[in-house]
């Protein structure tokens, strides 16, 4: 590293500025911007129990579509950060921000090796200021580490394919297991990894290099075993629960009415997915120029592939992006931008390559490259999410629980939540950490019930059908408080 800095002082300084910018945009007021709702509360409760009680975890969160369970690796990834932060939910969010910044560095590294110095720096800069990348790198959520592990998979298979560095195969197996356990759309990496593994095997076979072939197959076996070991908790879970996850997967791919259309020719979603990719990742979530930008990127990608000396790297990049867009196009459910986490680096590497190619041409094309780069970076900064008002979900949740603890007067209480799109795990996390005398309704009914309403004055806690409230029985309100837009009620039994 020291030698690199000595030989490339300007590049090292620019890279340092980009990384500081990336970290600053992700870490800025992170405690106020991070998402902390039911899912996040559930995650930190599980990881807290893993840390403090040694409760091992064999499955991760349940998917929103298909009722499948992810693996538990994200929980183990969270554990050191939650422990070091004194069980503060900000700790895992900071971990994600640091990992996001590392992904920016990795994007520069790959862009420089595949294309040029300018391409690497520009790819890293675009990734650093990307509004979508910032949003999903400042909150603790299992899909958020996906870009790093996906890029590690791709770089590893590239090193195997081009450099014959077979020791990367176990790393590919490990990083793929991580990517897959962050989100099941990591499955779309399989055809990419499989294709270039096969191409490597074919080239070794054609060279009649028996020794190299044995080494390749041995490391392939190590890679597969590494993958299986990391996936083993899910396998053990399925064995114990009569193939619950396997059956959910089977239903997902066989019930094509609501999930997937395995015939891409009949899909009408290729264009919308492409436009969303360009608008959200290239144009800072703005849709105005997305159609024109998509056409220009497609045409110019073909031109650069024909004219440049980067065909080998571009082949891998195009296959990576192609299978991603194709796979998402046959998915019938709504596609959210975080589903594309496994191609975030690919998009910025492609932009870096295209503009890096122009930078090597005559003055007028250099000028076009510079203007386009300045426009894209400025556009992202202008629409940067750091300029938005923080949601302060974490602070509001803790303030509400502090009020409940105070008003409960040290006496046991039941607790309920009224919300359209949330559940009570985030509140429970603070109540449990603060040793409040919370008693779950399924365990015992006590003399008072606190209800948090996230819908303001529209709530009616008396007689509400929510289970934790209904089980309390006939009751009436004896106290109300406000914490921001939250309405908090204290109820006692009606005699």
Number of strands: 4
The largest beta-sheet arranges its strands as 1-2-4-3
Strand coverage percent: 5-15%
Nearest-integer average pLDDT: 94
Shape: globular
Characterize the largest beta sheet: strand count, sense, and whether it forms a barrel.
4 strands, mixed
Report how far apart the termini are.
Answer: 75 Å
Q: Determine the structural class based on helices, strands and strand pairing.
A: mainly alpha
Protein described:
The protein is mainly α. The chain folds into two domains: 2-387, no CATH class; 393-493. The protein has helices at 2-7, 9-27, 30-33, 38-53, 73-84, 90-114, 117-129, 131-135, 146-163, 168-182, 190-206, 210-240, 244-254, 270-281, 290-307, 311-329, 344-359, 363-382, 393-407, 425-433, 467-470, and strands at 414-418, 448-453, 475-483, 486-493. The protein has a four-stranded mixed sheet with strand order 1-2-4-3. α20 links the parallel β1 (414-418) and β2. α7 (117-129) packs parallel to α18 and α15 (290-307) crosses α17 (344-359). The longest helix is centred in the middle third of the chain and has 31 residues, at 210-240. The protein is globular. The N and C termini lie far apart (75 Å).
